[in-house]
Amino acid sequence: MAYSDKVVDHYENPRNVGSFDKGDESIGTGMVGAPACGDVMKLQIKVNPQTGVIEDARFKTYGCGSAIASSSLVTEWVKGKTLDQAAQLKNSQIAEELALPPVKIHCSILAEDAIKAAVEDYKKKHAH
Ligand code: FES
Ligand code: FES
């Protein structure tokens, strides 16, 4: 199966690969696995506590090209967004942008789940 140009681009030049310190108050971490294939994705956001705006993001993904491209794309998209805007991101937007075929849709769902989990984690840290 051929990957789309955008998937190849993100796969060859992944944006924002890496990690933030999980214990940092300004960081939200989402770690999710895909039951369909066993792949794992970690997505982190760095939030401005004053404004609630996401200033930076990182990812580490152990998975296929589509999973890597999906997480790379999401780290670009969420920068400058509020937590609520980021949590509303839909996997269908990712799949459309990357022209993912039906068998690779679950890779984009992984990215949606990961960003939602990262937002939740941040909110939990600040729910006191
Ligand atoms: Fe797991 Fe894609 S099937 S790498
Ligand atoms: Fe499983 Fe892409 S995350 S095939």
UniProtKB/TrEMBL annotation:
Which CDD domains did the record assign?
Answer: IscU_like
Q: Which InterPro entries match?
A: ISCU (IPR011339), NIF_FeS_clus_asmbl_NifU_N (IPR002871)
Q: Name one GO cellular component term.
A: cytoplasm
UniProt cross-references to Pfam families, sorted A to Z? NifU_N
Which positions fall inside the NIF system FeS cluster assembly NifU N-terminal domain? 2-126
Q: Which GO terms describe its molecular function?
A: iron ion binding; iron-sulfur cluster binding
| GO terms of biological process kind | iron-sulfur cluster assembly
Domain of life the protein comes from:
Bacteria
- What does this protein's UniProt record list under function? A scaffold on which IscS assembles Fe-S clusters. It is likely that Fe-S cluster coordination is flexible as the role of this complex is to build and then hand off Fe-S clusters.
Family as reported in the entry's similarity comment: Belongs to the NifU family.
Could you identify this protein by its name?
Iron-sulfur cluster assembly scaffold protein IscU
Species name for this entry?
Ramlibacter pinisoli
User: Which gene specifies this protein's sequence?
Assistant: iscU
